[in-house]
Design brief:
globular; 3-stranded antiparallel β-sheet; 2 domains; 386 residues; single chain; alpha+beta; MetI-like fold; two-stranded antiparallel sheet
Length: 386
């Protein structure tokens, strides 16, 4: 059997490059901080990056809802009740005009009580940008009238149609995002604080603390969530202000969500507290709080990120379901669940399908958080996907 040919490269040895270009141990990666490494790994997860690009503008919109919405929340147009979405156009009779709409005129059939709208295509109505529109109170504190987008002069702009009171559905969706999106963040913040605290105590100290925390979490998890949500939500006084109802619903969702995280934290800490680095920290005099926060919790950060990414959409769905059933948030508070409560009968689905539009942002937000959680978990712990 003949020997295999062996070739030796004649290129001079480059001492500055000790490993192959593109390796994770290259000079670029060796000098990068942990945050940079996480960001570089996250960018390779394209779907998670798209989800981040959706969620960041959505949450920024929450801060300037009144400016982004074309109409204030309570503005009514009694001559445009149950109007279908107005079409957005760019060209009129072959000429480019820019974004504009046509006027819609409605007629009521007195026999069927059904409204019919027709477009007046004789005159385009250009949409205004960065303009003065209907006045509002910014965050309920300051009077202003500046809008990012305004309806045409002496015209209307209902791109997603109107509801039974003639209110713009697009504006109400934007206002509802402020409540629905923040419920998830505030609720998860409370839930994580409770889960990390009780789970950390049970997992690190064990003994009687572990026993009572475990029995408490098992008891809470054994209760069916939906009946408990309904019972606690129904117990909120009807005389409470909208702000108190909002915080009451958020607190209920958080108190029912923390046992799952506490059990996960407990199981992880029970195994990590036996590791050598934990014993070394104890010998060096570190307090239990420092050991848990600085040494134990970071070792399963990818799991915590995945749990948070799933808890936020779960709370958004829970608030939507409670408000849809009439036991969650109530008008004048506007959330996506409150908007969906107006589409509970078959008449709305058959005649006014645009009232179901709040389902779209709910679905997109839930999917975006799921994809974002997958990307962050893989970026923080590259071996978690294996």
């Amino acid at each position: 059997m003949s020997a295999l040919p062996h070739t030796v490269s004649a290129e001079p040895f480059d001492a500055a490059r000790t490993v192959a270009e593109g390796s994770v141990y290259s000079e670029k990666y060796m000098r990068a901080s942990q945050a940079q490494l996480i960001w570089w790994r996250f960018k390779r997860h394209r779907i998670a990056l798209v989800a981040l690009m959706f969620l960041v503008p959505a949450y920024l919109t929450v801060l300037v809802t009144e400016i982004v919405a074309p109409y204030p929340l309570a503005t009514r147009h009694t001559s445009h009740i149950f109007m279908p979405p107005q079409g957005l156009h760019l060209f009129h009779e072959g000429r480019f005009i820019g974004p504009f709409v046509y006027d819609m005129k409605g007629t009521l059939d007195l026999d069927t009580l059904q409204r019919t709208y027709t477009e007046n295509r004789s005159e385009p109505k250009p949409i205004r940008f960065l303009c003065s529109g209907e006045p509002y109170r910014f965050w309920g504190l300051l009077d202003a009238d500046f809008h990012l987008v305004c309806p045409p002069e002496n015209g209307t702009m209902f791109l997603l149609g109107t509801d039974r009171l003639g209110r713009d559905m697009l504006s109400r969706l934007i206002h509802g995002a402020r409540i629905s999106l923040t419920v998830g963040l505030v609720g998860v913040a409370i839930s994580f604080a409770l889960g990390l605290f009780f789970g950390g105590l049970a997992g690190y100290f064990g003994g009687k603390i572990d026993y009572w925390v475990s029995r408490t979490t098992e008891t809470l998890r054994s209760i069916p969530e939906l009946p408990l949500w309904l019972a606690l939500s129904a117990s909120l006084p009807v005389t409470w202000s909208p702000i108190l109802v909002y915080f009451g619903i958020t607190l209920i969702l958080a108190l029912l969500d923390w046992p799952g995280l506490a059990r996960a934290v407990r199981s992880k800490l029970l195994s990590l507290r036996e590791e050598d680095f934990t014993a070394a920290a104890v010998v060096m005099g570190a307090t239990p709080g420092r050991i848990i926060a600085r040494h134990l919790l970071p070792n399963f950060m990818s799991h915590l990120i995945a749990s948070a990414s799933l808890s936020i959409p779960s709370m958004i769905l829970a608030e939507t379901a409670l408000s849809f059933l009439g036991l969650g948030l109530r008008p004048p508070i506007t959330s996506w669940g409150v908007l969906l409560s107006e589409a509970q009968n078959i008449e709305a689905v058959a005649l006014y399908p645009w009232l179901l539009m709040p389902m779209v942002p709910v679905m997109l937000t839930v999917l975006a958080f799921s994809f974002l959680g997958d990307g962050l978990r893989d970026a923080v712990d590259p071996h978690s996907a294996n």
